[in-house]
Every structure is written in C-alpha cells, then in structure tokens.
C-alpha cells in the first residue's frame, strides 16, 4: 500500500513540531501554564511594568537618533537645530533613567508580594495536606522548595514576560531603525538567528537537566543539614560529629560538582553566543566602514549604526538570557506544583455535632484494616471502642500498631477496610476526618513543645485562656510546682523542643496543654513514659476526678496505667484483641 505523501513544507514542519513536542517541552509548557495561571491576579501590575520597560527602551532609541543628528549637525556646521537636538537627547536620557528606576522599584515590590503569597499558600497546603502524602517528603526538601523554588518562581513569573516583551520590542525597534537607513545592515544583524534556531533544542534540554540536578542535590544537602541539627544530641552522644561533618562535605561536594557542571555548560553556551555575536558585529562594522568610505553614509549615521549594532546585540543577548530564567522558573514551578498537588485532608460535614459535645463522644473502629505499604497490614479487621467517662488502654509490643491506631482514630490515616468513627450521645455517627479533630486533645510521642514561654505553649490550643485556667491545667498535670518555681513562672522561656526542661517536665506541660483545650476526647500516646510512677498515678487520678466525662485513650507499656483503665486492647501481629480482666491484670503483673 502506498503511503499518502504530505507536501514537502508541512512534512518538515511536522517533524520539527514533533521533535519539539517530546517530554521535556510538554513539561516546560505545563509548568509555564501553571505559572501563567497562578500570576493571573498580578496581571495588571505585570502589564504596567511591561509598558514602563517599553517606554524606557523607546527613550533610549530616541536619545540614540538624537545623538546621530547632533553629530551630523556638528560635522556639517549646521548649528541652528543643535540646541533642540541636545535638549531632546538630554531629556530622553533623564526620563529613561527615571523610568528604569521606577521599573526596578515596582518589579521588586511585585516580586516580593508574589514570593510571600506563594510561600504562604504552599505553607497552608502543607498544613492541610494528607498525612501520608506529606510523609513522602523530607523536611529539608520542603524547606528548600519553600525558599529557593518559591523565590525563583516569584522573580521569574513577574519579570520574565515583561523582560521578554521589552527585549523583543527593543530588538525589533532597533532593527527597524537600522532597516530605515540600510537593509543590508539589518540583514547582517540577523545573521546568527538560523544557527540559534537549529541549536536551541539541545541547549534548552541541557540547561533544564542541569538545573533539575542542581535543585535536587541542593534539596538533599538541606535535608541532611536539617536532620543533623534536629538530632544533634544523639549524634554528639555517640561521638560521631566528625562523621556527620564528613557527610556534609560529601553532599557539598555533590552540590559543587552539579553546580560546576551547570556553570561549564553555561560558559560554553555563552562562548558560543559571544563568538556568534562578535562575528556578526565585525561583519556589520566592516560593512559600515565600507559605506562610509564609499560616501553612502555620514559620520552620524555610522555612529548610529555602531551604537545600535551594540544595542541590537545586547537586546539579543537579553533575549537569549531570558531562556535560562524561563527554564529555571519552570523547574521550580514543577517542584512547587508537587506540593500544590498534595492531596488535602478530607473534611466531612457533621451538622450540629457541636451541640452534642457536652455529652461526650464514643470513639470506635469496626473491622478496620490498615497498612502503610501495599500487602503489609499493620491492623487486620480490628474492633475498638471507648465511651465517655472511660479510660481505655492500647498495649502491645513496640511496632505492634498502637500509634497507627491513634492515627486512624484521629483521621490522619484512613482505613483501607472497615470504619473508624465518632458517635454522639444521640447515636449519630460521623466517620473520622480532619473536621472532627476539634473534639480531640492529643499528646503525641516525643517532645512537642515550641520555643517561647510556657504560657505561649499552653495558649497554642486556647489563645484566650486566662492565667487561672493555665494554672488549673498545670496543677492537673502535676506541673504547677516546678513551673511556679521557675524564673518568670508562666512566662519562663523554653527553647525549641522544650529545651531547658527535663523530658518528664516537657511531657507534663504537653499534658497540661491537652487538658487546657478541654476537648471531649483525650488521646495520650506514651504521654507519661518519662514520669516516675507516683507522678504518673497522680496525673491519671487527677484526670479521672476532674474530667469524669472525657473519653480517654492511652497507649502505654506501663502497668500503672493498665490498672487504672476500664478496658485494655492488645495490638500485636496485625490483630487487636480486647483483654478480659484476668488477662489485663496478668499483663500488668508481667511488666
Ligand atoms: N510513617 C510510617 N510509614 C511506614 N510504616 C510505618 C510508619 N509508622 C509506623 N509504621 C510501621 O507500622 C508498624 C506499627 O507502628 P506503630 O508506630 O503503630 O507501632 P507502636 O505499637 O506505636 O510502636 P511503639 O510502641 O514502638 O511506639 C511498624 O511496623 C512500623 O514500621
């Protein structure tokens, strides 16, 4: 069968388009579509910025033409129009200066605003993102995207299009001025264009690959620094700071190598452009001398050609230079889009549930199965129930699935089978979701205090709490004695992660914070693990006596806690088992 032949011209155009439409370019296209959509709200400012740029470029041209006339006037001894021409020259230069200063000020203002907006929006997305998808990112990587990538997008998003428009305009206007005086000269100025068109695809792809590599290695470096600083005590404790110093240097070396590779690629590209530009300029200069020698142009026109030739090549360079910033913005946009694409936590409607809050809530799971990885279930068809006024324990070996159960009850992760729900006193049931967390007070494992005063840490969950309420919560958590003895009392400062407090003191403040929130459900995940037995018992008794209607769920390895609980669930080997009284007592004795 004979293939249908396309006309020659459209076939080569088709091949060209196909070769441009490979993965790289469709990615760049998608990234820029996103940037374009994102910056819609700043469009008016961008146009204003563009108009200022075009005006300042026009004034530059006016000044150049005026200087041509002034030279022609002087060399021709025609002094009548000299003052007019000089006035135009000086005025256009001054107004041009003013415009470029205003443009710089405006662009800085807009790009700062865009940067803040992107950072704030990404930050909000991170806070509202689904727990599991957020867990795929290292904190250093997130920080790098928040700072470096947001900065690259914000500066390019605002400047790139105006810069492109101004460069294209300057290029065309300058070319038009030259064309007005001599078309061969204009043609010479364009001599490098076909070569650039042919090489552009390779250059663009190379540049994008290098930029992606530099960003990824930069992110890895930042993740390493963040994690090391986060775990400094452990690293020092093992006496392995030297190894971590070496680790940093190794990652720095990777970053240095990636950056230098990119730099080499840029230098090669620059050399290529400069050689090309110089060849074109020399040809133009030679042709200019020929025109002057043959008496076809005057000195003024020659000055105009030379100055505009330089301007043309710098406009052309500016045009070429928009490519790396265009690509850099697209690489950063992709990394930010990854964060925008994070699945948000679902919030389900729970009309009128607030009216039931004073009567407490039952927390329940029925036939729940869950695993972090496919075919590796941590829980299989688990049942669980904790009613208002009950303290229920989750026990089991380390890695058994206690914290995972808490995550399911908080709606941080969702069951792959079965359901976890909150049941109000009127019998209404609402599946666990982010919206229900207002009914929970949660004390997670580990130190969760933030830098600031003790009062700041407590008011984090109830900003309008007065000092009396803070004191009551601290008393219930057996923390008031040591807080009142601290210099500054409630206003004593603590560092990041409760630096300046003992582990047990930090735990007691975290419990006080949960109590201050006064939510119907209290979740304590190993929240008393660092306390002595007497203090632990006192706190649990305080809870039962002062908050008799709360639903309280604790995960623990301690017998002290088990003996105070209404029910005990053992989570182990993927199963959740409700222990009868005897087994619970035996378990408490076995510890
Ligand atoms: N973020 C996570 N991603 C993947 N797997 C996880 C994650 N968190 C926990 N797991 C896995 O789930 C299982 C249960 O962990 P979980 O933290 O629920 O145990 P636990 O009973 O609370 O342990 P511990 O008493 O040591 O706190 C473990 O095998 C663990 O490896």
From TrEMBL:
Main location: membrane
Annotated GO MF terms: ABC-type transporter activity; ATP binding; ATP hydrolysis activity; ATPase-coupled lipid transmembrane transporter activity
Keyword annotations of the record: ATP-binding, Membrane, Nucleotide-binding, Transmembrane, Transmembrane helix
UniProt subcellular location: Cell membrane
A cellular-component GO term for this protein: plasma membrane
ABC transmembrane type-1 domain sequence ranges: 47-328
PANTHER family: ATP-BINDING CASSETTE SUB-FAMILY B, ATP-BINDING CASSETTE SUB-FAMILY B MEMBER 6
Name assigned to this protein: ABC transporter ATP-binding protein/permease
Native species: Brotocaccenecus cirricatena
């Amino acid at each position: 069968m004979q293939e249908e032949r396309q006309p020659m011209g459209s076939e080569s155009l088709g091949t060209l388009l196909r070769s441009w439409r490979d993965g790289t370019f469709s990615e760049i296209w998608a990234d820029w579509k996103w940037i374009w959509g994102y910056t819609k709200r700043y469009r008016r400012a961008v146009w204003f910025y563009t108009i200022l740029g075009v005006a300042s470029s026009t004034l530059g041209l006016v000044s150049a033409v005026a200087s041509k006339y002034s030279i022609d006037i002087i060399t021709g001894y025609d002094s009548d129009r000299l003052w007019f021409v000089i006035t135009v020259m000086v005025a256009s230069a001054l107004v041009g200066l003013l415009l470029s200063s205003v443009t710089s000020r405006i662009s800085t203002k807009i790009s700062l605003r865009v940067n803040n907006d992107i950072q704030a929006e990404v930050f909000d997305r991170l806070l509202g993102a689904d727990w599991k998808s957020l867990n795929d990112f290292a904190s250093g990587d997130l920080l790098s995207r928040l700072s470096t990538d947001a900065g690259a997008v914000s500066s390019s998003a605002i400047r790139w299009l105006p810069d492109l428009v101004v460069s294209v305009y300057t290029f065309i206007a300058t070319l038009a001025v030259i064309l007005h005086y001599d078309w061969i000269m204009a043609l010479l100025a364009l001599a490098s264009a076909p070569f650039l068109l042919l090489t552009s695809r390779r250059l663009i792809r190379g540049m994008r690959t290098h930029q992606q590599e530099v960003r990824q290695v930069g992110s890895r470096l930042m993740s390493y620094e963040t994690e090391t600083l986060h775990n400094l005590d452990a690293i020092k404790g093992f006496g392995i700071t030297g190894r971590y110093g070496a680790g940093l240097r190794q990652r720095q070396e990777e970053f240095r190598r990636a950056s230098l590779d990119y730099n080499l690629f840029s230098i090669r590209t620059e050399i290529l452009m400069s050689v090309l530009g110089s060849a074109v300029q020399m040809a133009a200069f030679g042709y200019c001398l020929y025109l002057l020698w043959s008496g076809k142009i005057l000195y003024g026109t020659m000055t105009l050609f030379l100055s505009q030739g330089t301007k043309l090549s710098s406009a052309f360079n500016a045009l070429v230079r928009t490519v790396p910033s265009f690509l850099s913005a697209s690489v950063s946009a992709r990394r930010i889009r990854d964060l925008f694409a994070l699945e948000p936590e679902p919030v389900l409607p729970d009309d009128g549930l607030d009216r039931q809050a004073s009567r407490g809530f039952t927390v329940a799971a029925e036939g729940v199965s869950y695993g972090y990885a496919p075919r590796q279930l941590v829980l299989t068809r688990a049942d669980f129930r904790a009613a208002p006024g009950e303290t229920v324990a989750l026990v089991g070996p380390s890695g058994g699935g206690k914290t995972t159960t808490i995550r399911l009850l908080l709606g941080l992760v969702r069951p792959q089978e079965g359901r976890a729900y909150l049941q109000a006193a009127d019998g209404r049931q609402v599946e666990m979701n982010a919206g229900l967390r207002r009914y929970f007070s949660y004390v997670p494992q580990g130190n969760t205090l933030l830098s600031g005063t003790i009062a700041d840490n407590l008011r984090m969950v109830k900003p309008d709490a007065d000092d009396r309420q803070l004191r009551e919560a601290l008393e219930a958590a057996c923390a008031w004695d040591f807080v009142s003895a601290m210099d500054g009392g409630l206003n004593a400062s603590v560092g990041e992660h409760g630096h300046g407090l003992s582990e047990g003191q930090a735990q007691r403040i975290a419990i006080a914070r949960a109590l201050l929130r006064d939510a119907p459900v209290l979740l304590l995940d190993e929240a008393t693990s660092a306390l002595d037995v007497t203090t632990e018992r006192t706190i649990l008794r305080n809870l039962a006596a002062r908050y008799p209607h709360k639903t309280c769920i604790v995960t623990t390895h301690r017998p002290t806690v088990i003996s105070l609980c209404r029910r005990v669930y053992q989570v182990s080997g993927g199963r959740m088992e409700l222990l009868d009284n005897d087994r619970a007592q035996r378990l408490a004795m076995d510890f």
